[in-house]
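dumping this here so i dont lose it
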């Protein structure tokens, strides 16, 4: 595995941060869209989804961090389900702006993407094979409010760097 250097200012602004947030779109099926993630290091993100149609999903990904300006970061990753996620994280304003492009399989069969990655990886990879990756995507722009920001993994499970992501 190749290790890339951390972006400038990453260690003081993002390393080991844990963020809990709620999407502004409110309730879906009586569930608040509550999410959390932990910035383990400059190459991984660990997250869990607690509300909405993707509730019950715990995952970790290879992530790409880009500093836009002081305490404003773009974080992007591609999931094994074929879904692409990009987050603009504005720490001073306590805001998250997200663009997700769900694969056909992930969007249409969200219950198959629930659980923890270590036990579901192959099933989640199968979701990426459903539909056409170019024309059958479901784009979803969202806004969220940061509810809590603190240091450490909290209740999220730690990961090993050699565990596969895609």
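and the seq i came up w/
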């Amino acid at each position: 595995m190749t290790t890339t250097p951390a972006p400038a200012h990453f260690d003081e602004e993002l390393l080991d941060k844990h963020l809990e947030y709620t999407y502004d779109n409110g309730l879906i099926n009586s569930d608040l869209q509550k999410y959390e993630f932990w910035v383990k290091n400059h190459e991984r993100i660990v997250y869990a989804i607690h509300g909405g149609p993707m509730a019950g999903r715990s995952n970790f990904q290879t992530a790409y961090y880009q500093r836009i300006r002081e305490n404003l970061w773009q974080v992007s990753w591609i999931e094994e389900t074929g879904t692409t996620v990009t987050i603009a994280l504005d720490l001073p304003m306590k805001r998250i702006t997200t663009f997700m492009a769900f694969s056909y399989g992930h969007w249409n069969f969200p219950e198959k993407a629930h659980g923890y990655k270590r036990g579901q990886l192959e099933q989640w990879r199968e979701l990426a094979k459903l539909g056409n990756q170019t024309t059958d995507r479901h784009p979803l722009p969202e806004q969220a409010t940061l509810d809590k920001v603190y240091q450490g993994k909290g209740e999220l499970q730690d990961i090993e760097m050699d565990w596969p992501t895609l």
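The radius of gyration is 15 Å.
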